[in-house]
Design a protein that fits this description.
two-stranded antiparallel ribbon; mainly beta; 1 helix
């Protein structure tokens, strides 16, 4: 029993040190300002605001995208890994999340296809079938 409690205590300490102990809604707010669909792509433009009292290194913001029947088509994501976006308290940063569908997803089996040079191809990009995208998560860590 003491070993189990010790392990649980270590896990809790790890979460606290990583900055993931509180919910992201207590640390950040986000907006969706505009949805763009140029040339068959799908983009979500908006902002993320650090509403905490800590500095954070933003990793990503992600949305799950659905068709009109409620089937998941994939995710729209803005990944800051290469840019290392640091936010300080009350700072707002802009993002553009891009839809990244998974063409191997079984959902696409039921979308319209046509034969093209002997291969079956989708008539439209999977982004064409997006009905809506819902906020999924923000990933981050404390900036130390």
């Amino acid at each position: 029993m003491k070993k189990v409690l010790s392990v649980l205590a270590l896990i809790c300490v790890a979460f606290i040190l990583s900055g993931c102990s509180d919910s992201e809604s207590e640390k950040f707010t986000h907006t969706i300002d505009k949805i763009r669909t140029p040339d068959g792509d799908y983009f979500i433009d908006g902002t993320v605001t650090n509403v905490s009292n800590e500095d954070y290194l933003m990793r990503s913001i992600q949305f799950i995208c659905y068709d009109a029947k409620g089937r998941i088509l994939g995710t729209a994501i803005k990944d800051w890994d290469g840019e290392a976006k640091i936010t300080v308290p009350n700072q707002t940063i802009k993002y553009t999340a891009r839809f990244k569908g998974d063409p191997l997803d079984e959902t696409y089996d039921s979308l319209e296809t046509t034969e093209f040079f002997g291969e079956e191809k989708y008539i439209f990009s999977p982004a064409h079938y997006i009905d809506h995208c819902n906020f999924d998560k923000i990933t981050y860590r404390l900036n130390k």
